[in-house]
Amino acid sequence: SSGINAEYYGQYEDQTYAGGLDTNMTGAEGNKDYGNGADGDIQSPEDLKKFVLQDPVTRVRYCSICNNYSHKAQANVRDHIESKHYNNHFIYNCEKCSKQFPTKMALFKHKPRCKF
Fold it and tell me: For the residues 79-108, what does the mean pLDDT come to?
């Protein structure tokens, strides 16, 4: 067992998938397989922001990996990228109980439920 709490594996709430998002936008990198860990440029969770692009017309930010998720807040799109494309790339530890989580969002959801 990897020690990661399976209860929170892969969970991600408040997703907004834009079915009509134009995938031919300037700057969109298209559907690339970044989540396999082959991208050596991703050393910290903040590095995932390079995949967050902004539509020049609507000013909405979107995931340049899948082009299927958009939100006005950059942090929400970054969380989507980590949860869907870089799950388990980083490990987050709860300061109270030492459980490990595969995403920042999983740790965030755990904290109010932590029994310690």
Answer: 95
